[in-house]
Amino acid sequence: MTLESYNKIIFNIQRIKQFDILLWLDDYSHYSPDKAASLMLIEWDCIKIDKKHLKDEEYLKVLINLFLKRFRYIVVEGIENESQLKKFTQFHVLLQGYYISKPLPISQISTLKYHL
Which candidate, 65, 78, 91, 104, has a CA 20 to 30 Å from the CA of 46? Predict the structure, then answer.
């Protein structure tokens, strides 16, 4: 990406944010530190961390600690059992996965019970 195109992206994000629109980055899945660092420059409100990071718990801890300093919301996807639920609840992030709920039509979302 060129500096000019990056600046254009930043400019457009700032314009969007003027309308109080939340920007969510879905499925963060990069392993390289330079890509994580470049994401920190953009004013995302939420970042959703891809489930493949559940395999490397130490790396996931580093990501969460880094992202907690920058983003309003962090979602860790791929929670598929009680052990993962207990383990990742300690990080004070939002959790998503089949253990919590299968995908629902929008008409049923209000019936979903949340456990904190």
Answer: 104
